[in-house]
Amino acid sequence: MRMIMPKMGNISKKKRRKKKKEMKRRKKKGEKDEEKHDDKVIEVGDYSNMEAPSSLKSLCRYVETTLLPEDKLLQFTIDKEVFGGDRDTFLLPEDITQFAGMEEIGATVVAVYMRYLHDVLKQANMCSMVGFIDPATVSANSGTIAERSRLVAARLQKTDGEQIFMMPYNPGRHWILLIVRAKKETVYFLDPLPGHRVVDEEAKNIVNSAIKIYNTHIARAGRKNVIWKTLSGTPKQPSSVECGYYVMRFMRDIIMDPSLGFENKYAKGNQEASYPQEAIDEVRNEWAEFVFQIIKQGNY
Fold first, then answer.
1. In what order do the strands lie in the sheet with 186-190?
2. Are 125 and 250 spatial neighbours (Cβ–Cβ below 8 Å)?
3. Mind listing the domains of the chain with CATH numbers?
4. Are 73 and 8 in contact (CB under 8 A)?
5. Taking every annotated instance into account, which residue ranges of this chain make up the domain Ubiquitin-like protease family profile (predicted)?
């Protein structure tokens, strides 16, 4: 299997212009976030005060000494075994520094960790049990509901039906996790925010339609309504910016249990405290070490 095919960070002028526009847009967003979370914003070079795993600090140094001076980004391909199709991935310098600073994160950062978790599944011989849906293709503003439903359905069809599929979803500046069990027409909803949470209607419509398409594909009439279960016993984020990190940790915890007993584990009232920072840093360290693998393979 082709694990990762890294490419040189210098890309075509057209793509570069596109990425620079994206970088400017994200820079503006970062400035807005800085106003809201100025107590958490850390300068890239301020390593002594940065509360991050050493691997992430090293990655930030690499950004400062190599990527930024040479106007580079990390470009690589995530193999089709992970999301059902090859995914061209562009990791920007600010993706790394924002992740190191515990700021809000985007779909690319989450997708890179899912790529790492795919290796964990392979080592545990669990790829036939758990699959992933690319968060960038299904979250808000990534296409019409019909288009996103077809993408989810296509992913569900590339299985024997026994797999569960993890689908991080962002309706707009917040990450949740949906777990789709197509064969049982059941979807689990995990939200790291405290309080009574309800599923985003758009996400619900996307997955409901995808399961209907899947039923047609396997020539099954299916039930009238898809079953939705809210697993409210998940650990809860302490403030407004940790949702992406919590969703990554949810996925990690779920696949580390070979019995996939997440439904009972996260039942209401079972576990509602926040993760200790060490648990989040474990995820951040794994992410950083995996990105270093990409760098080494790509000869950046």
1. 130-132, 164-169, 176-181, 186-190, 227-230
2. no
3. 4-34+50-298 (3.40.395.10)
4. no
5. 89-254
Q: What is the chain's pLDDT, residue by residue, as a tens digit (300 residues)?
A: 344 444 434 444 444 455 445 444 444 444 444 333 344 444 445 555 678 899 999 999 999 999 999 999 999 999 999 999 999 999 999 999 999 999 999 999 999 999 999 999 999 999 999 999 999 999 998 999 999 999 999 999 988 778 999 999 999 999 999 999 999 999 999 999 998 889 999 999 999 999 999 999 999 999 999 999 999 999 999 999 999 999 999 999 999 999 999 999 999 877 678 999 999 999 999 999 999 999 988 855
Distance CA 292, CA 299 (A): 11
Question: Length of the chain in residues, anyone?
Answer: 300
For residue 50, what is the DSSP state?
A: -
∠ Cα 177 183 186 (to 5°):
40
Closest CA to 120 of 2, 276, 291, 286: 286
* Angstrom distance (rounded) from CA 110 to CA 246: 11
Give the separation between CA 263 and CA 268, rounded to whole angstroms.
10
Query: Quick one: which of 148, 188, 149 has its CA closest to 165?
Result: 188
Identify whether the C-beta of residue 151 lies closer than 8 Å to the C-beta of residue 175: no
Q: Which of 196, 207, 127 is nearest to 167 (CA)?
A: 207
Q: By the 8 A CB rule, do 156 and 170 touch?
A: no
Name the nearest CA neighbour of 166 among 148, 147, 188: 188
Tokens of 53: 């795993």
Q: SS3 for 142?
A: coil
Residue type, 11: I
Residue type, 232: S
Burial of 31 (0-12, 13-18, 19+ CB in 10 A): exposed
